[in-house]
Amino acid sequence: MTVTIEDVRDAAARIAGVAHRTPVMRSRTLDALVGAEVYVKCENLQRIGAFKFRGAYNAASRLTPEQVARGIAAYSSGNHAQAVALAARELGTTAVILMPEDTPRSKVEATLGYGAEVVTYDRYTGDRVAIGEALAADRGLTLIPPYEHPDVIAGQGTAALELIEEVGELDALVVPVGGGGLIAGSATAAKGLLPGISVIGVEPEGGDDTKRSLEAGRRVSVPVPRTIADGQAADIPGELTFSVNQKLVDDIVLVSDDEIRAAMRLAFERMKTVMEPSGATPLAALLAGRIDPLPRRVGVIVSGGNIDAQRFAQLLG
């Protein structure tokens, strides 16, 4: 099973007019601090506040009328939950979402607000895939996983497709890595359009499962990450995403929680935009000098901005 640039283009046509074509932001301050031209794709301004709506809607919109009528299931720490809930609402059906008990309350409330039912589990003792599959089977629902699905990956790749269509040639693309769906789709799109581009993933130091896996040449599991970047708290890369990323991703770099906080602060104070911790990791990598040598024209995908005011103030206080 593979994903191609044609799949990403097809996804772009399918989500057009439903997902936002998000803006690309520039900042002279950022360029000066980093020493490059940085083009920031603002998926924090996407519907549901994150890139996840692209893949969720692309996958959900391809279900049969019978599958749509029965409803959709998903498991997620937050953004995919909201994405599937909204996709289900757009398609006139229902969604049941499995979420960790410690998911930020704002993400749970947003998911409920889109009309979904939420079922919780303990992320430190429970296997969300097994619980999610059992839940879907028991209720006769179609499960849309957060990244282990070719239509989800193709949908996520539309963010990079739009970025390159808008700004032209880039030397590098820097992307957050959790389960690997965003970077798999982004790398498919980027290298399909610009074969010479360098695709660099960013993980929090506590959750370096993809970096370790690429270095080992096989999927490696790490303890469940404890990091402020809750959207990147994956303990092992997806099988499908890893197979794509092994071929297309050039490097993975790591950032600390303090570096993520510094990036969030800069984005807020100088760029006037709110990034959730996971969304700020590519910016953190640039500001901390993790990419060396840094090429001249760099694209960055800010994956999301779903953070409530209290948590934002707590992290930056």
Give structural notes.
The protein has 317 residues and is α/β, with parallel strands linked by helices. It contains 15 helices and ten strands. Strands 1-2-10-7-8-9 form a six-stranded mixed β-sheet, with helices on both faces. α6 links the parallel β4 and β5. The radius of gyration is 18 Å and the shape is globular. It starts with a helix and ends with a helix.
Give the helices and strands, then pairings.
Layout (H helix, E strand, L loop, with lengths): L4 H11 L8 E2 L2 H7 L2 E6 L9 H9 L4 H6 L1 E4 L3 H12 L4 E6 L4 H9 L3 E5 L6 H12 L2 E2 L6 H7 L1 H10 L4 E5 L4 H13 L4 E7 L4 H8 L22 H10 L2 E5 L1 H14 L6 H11 L9 E6 L6 H8 L1
Parallel strand pairs: 2-10, 3-4, 3-6, 4-5, 7-8, 7-10, 8-9
Antiparallel strand pairs: 1-2
Helix pairs in contact: 1-3, 1-8, 3-5, 3-8, 5-6, 8-10, 9-10, 10-12, 13-14
Provide a compact summary of the structure.
This protein is an alpha/beta fold. The chain has helices spanning 5-15, 28-34, 52-60, 65-70, 79-90, 105-113, 128-139, 150-156, 158-167, 181-193, 209-216, 239-248, 257-270, 277-287, 309-316; strands spanning 24-25, 37-42, 72-75, 95-100, 117-121, 142-143, 172-176, 198-204, 251-255, 297-302. The chain is globular and about 55 Å long.
Going across the biggest sheet, name each strand in turn: 1-2-10-7-8-9
* Spans where pLDDT lies below 50 across 5 or more residues: none
Rg (C-alpha, Å): 18 Å
Distance between the termini: 46 Å
Total strands: the figure is: 10
Fraction of residues in helix: 40-55%
Oligomer: single chain
How large a portion of the residues is in β-strands, by DSSP E? Answer: 15-25%
Largest sheet: 6 strands, mixed
Our count of helices gives 15
Q: Which structural category do the helix and sheet elements fall into?
A: alpha/beta
The string of secondary-structure elements, in order, is HEHEHHEHEHEHEHHEHEHHEHHEH
Shape: globular
Mean pLDDT value: 94
